[in-house]
Specification:
Length: about 325
């Protein structure tokens, strides 16, 4: 499956490079939002926590990735070259630096805060996201309020490192990782923590450990998504990573269905395209957008897929069709 997915992405990459830059940008943002939504769903949907700090992890990943290429880009070019292979290696180094930094931050924040539940956890993670943004705002080494470019003047000719293949490669990887986590032995523990923490503790499940695992994994992929974003959007500004960004990601998880990977993917696609599709109604765009979300939550409060996945829904339809015959 992994090899097949990679081969498909390589094939589509050739076509994606020749489409309109505007539509190409939308495709990239779809891939980034899929990674963000699926990684947050592991925390909020499968483990039953309520984190509002995903924009903070995205910001850490974005600025770390940008700092790697900004300050060490020339050294990396000398080692790996500036060709397609060299650019890919430099991108991967910067992304993993961002992901690891974000996951370490997730561990530091997660160990004390994940003993909290519900609204208290939401407030702590929201505060964490805002602290990260304020710290970035006051760090001149990464631009502060002036903005920060992933490419320094010396390596500006290298261009944007983000491309279609790596964007959707990591979207594909996060789907596989989360799916394997929740369907393996760990998955039963995540579900147990989600359903009843007290009962889980009574049968020997270390609930804090599993919540931290989910939190760190989600933070890592949030950092990866931030790195991809940083290498595509030049320059970065702290205002991009406000709590509103965290709320946008949470909306994708809720709209798709808490505990549904398929739902998160579909919601990420819809909620990336919808604001762009409504640009023709610039005066009423946000009103229409908000109204559609309210209607959706009133008519389908469990989200697009609830807790179901695409293959399960297809199997149900097939069974109904067979029974109908």
């Amino acid at each position: 499956m992994f090899v097949m997915g990679t081969a498909i992405l390589l094939s589509v990459e050739c076509v994606a490079n020749h489409i309109n830059p505007y539509y190409f940008g939308i495709l990239i943002y779809i891939g980034i939002n899929i990674t963000l939504a699926v990684s947050l769903n592991l925390i909020n949907g499968f483990t039953g926590q309520f984190s509002l700090g995903h924009a903070g992890f995205m910001a850490i990943g974005a600025y770390t990735s940008a700092a790697v290429t900004h300050y060490y880009g020339l050294n990396l070019i000398e080692i790996f070259g500036s060709g397609v292979f060299g650019k890919s290696v430099i991108l991967l180094i910067s992304l993993f630096a961002g992901g690891i930094t974000a996951s370490i931050s997730g561990l530091i924040v997660g160990i004390p805060s994940l003993r909290l539940k519900g609204d208290y956890l939401a407030i702590v993670t929201l505060g964490f996201g805002e602290i990260i943004r304020v710290i970035i705002l006051n760090l001149d080494v990464i631009g502060g309020a002036r903005g920060f470019s992933a490419a320094s003047e010396e390596i500006s000719e290298l261009g944007k490192l983000t491309n279609f293949f790596w964007t959707f490669f990591f979207a594909f990887v996060v789907i596989l990782v989360v799916k394997n986590l929740v369907t393996a032995t760990y998955g039963k523990a995540f579900q147990s923590v989600h359903d009843d923490e007290i009962a889980s503790e009574s049968i020997g499940i270390n609930t804090t450990r599993y919540k931290v695992i989910a939190f760190v994994t989600g933070a890592f992929f949030g950092g990866i998504a931030g790195g991809i974003f940083a290498q595509f959007l030049i320059p970065l500004y702290p205002q991009i990573f406000t709590f509103v960004k965290s709320v946008e990601i949470v909306v994708m998880v809720i709209l798709g269905g808490m505990g549904s990977i398929t739902g998160s993917v579909l919601a990420a696609i819809v909620l990336t395209i919808l604001p762009e599709a409504l640009r023709g109604f610039s005066e009423y765009r946000m009103i229409i957008y908000s109204l559609l979300l309210v209607i959706m939550m009133l008519t389908r409060p469990t989200g697009f897929f609830g807790k179901g996945e695409l293959e399960k829904i297809i199997a149900i339809f097939k069974r109904k069709k067979e029974l109908g015959k």
